């Protein structure tokens, strides 16, 4: 008996959806814009995350050591840094490797090459290239280097220079960009969700007004409140389902166009391939979001305007 009632409610809701095609299309298009923007934010977030990851990999803190620093002391400090939860990786560059890297970078500068050949000893000290897990954690790494862990076996600091202050501007700017993007995305999704709720709310209100005589007859013959309000909830969910399909279709060419324009942007991902490989997940997410928005709007309209 329950299944029969559910079937009738769903059939009645679908009938109401197709009975007013202009109203349904209008509501569906407005919600499609909302879900399309939500999907665009998802794709934009994936693109931005990929780009920011590339930038993060280029940001690090370099620790340069005194020429008389013992290699054993440098390696001890490297192990201590690797033990920090904020540190993702530590690369040790020996004095010899530092010299080779310097020569490679300036191999086209004959004056520098000639100057190095005139020197009797290696003028470069060892170094550590430290990468933190998050840009905001470089402050903790810098503070650690200022403590006693940076002292050699003789109790004297073995560090010649740390370029944290030189990179601090870039690190802080990157942290600000990440935080701003996250805040903007959350705020925009909230605004779009409110707009979708209001539009669907007014659409269901119109549907309730149009079906007021039918509702009155149903109540006279003893229909329950759930049976009377059920079709309107189904109609709202159908608005969301239709919008999810349309927005997914529209996102496909958008992903292809963005891929062509951002293919070389900080080594960003191929957004078109990303969309295709995650098509099912994106569609299901938009479908669930659309159904939830449509159903919530319908519940609000039913409680406000349906006198049952």
UniProtKB/TrEMBL annotation:
TM segment ranges: 21-48, 187-211, 232-255, 275-302
Domain ABC3 transporter permease C-terminal: 187-304
Domain FtsX extracellular: 59-146
A GO cellular component annotation in the UniProt record: plasma membrane
Main location: membrane
Subcellular location: Cell membrane
Cell cycle is among the record's keywords: yes
Membrane-topology annotation of the record: Multi-pass membrane protein
Keyword vocabulary terms for this entry: Cell cycle, Cell division, Cell membrane, Membrane, Transmembrane, Transmembrane helix
Alphabetical GO biological process terms: cell division
Family the UniProt entry places it in: Belongs to the ABC-4 integral membrane protein family. FtsX subfamily.
Name by which UniProt lists this protein: Cell division protein FtsX
């Amino acid at each position: 008996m329950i299944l029969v009632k559910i079937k009738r409610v769903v059939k009645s809701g679908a009938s109401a959806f197709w009975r007013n095609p202009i109203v349904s299309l209008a509501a569906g298009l407005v919600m499609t814009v909302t879900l399309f923007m939500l999907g665009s934010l998802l794709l934009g977030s994936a693109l931005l995350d990929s780009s920011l990851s590339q930038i993060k990999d280029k940001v690090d803190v370099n620790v340069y050591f005194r020429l008389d620093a013992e290699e054993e002391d440098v390696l001890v400090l490297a192990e201590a840094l690797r033990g920090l939860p904020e540190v993702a990786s530590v690369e040790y560059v020996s004095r010899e490797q530092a010299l080779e890297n310097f020569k490679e970078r300036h191999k086209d500068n004959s004056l520098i090459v000639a100057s190095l050949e005139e020197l009797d000893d290696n003028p470069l000290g060892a170094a550590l290239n430290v990468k933190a897990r998050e840009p905001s954690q470089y402050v903790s790494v810098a503070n650690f280097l200022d403590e006693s862990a940076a002292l050699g076996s003789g109790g004297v600091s073995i560090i010649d220079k740390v370029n944290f202050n030189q990179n601090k501007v870039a690190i802080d700017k990157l942290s600000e960009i990440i935080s701003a993007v996250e805040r903007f995305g959350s705020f925009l999704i909230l605004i779009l969700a409110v707009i979708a709720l209001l539009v669907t709310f007014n659409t269901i209100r119109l549907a309730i007004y149009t079906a007021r005589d039918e509702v009155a007859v149903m109540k006279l013959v003893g229909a329950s409140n759930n049976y009377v309000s059920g079709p309107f909830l189904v109609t709202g969910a159908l608005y969301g389902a239709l919008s999810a399909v349309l927005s997914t279709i529209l996102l496909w060419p958008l992903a292809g166009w963005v891929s062509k324009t951002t293919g070389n942007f900080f080594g960003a991902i191929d957004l078109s391939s990303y969309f295709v490989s995650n098509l099912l997940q994106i569609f299901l997410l938009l479908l669930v979001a659309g159904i939830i928005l449509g159903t919530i709007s319908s519940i609000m309209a039913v409680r406000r305007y349906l006198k049952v």
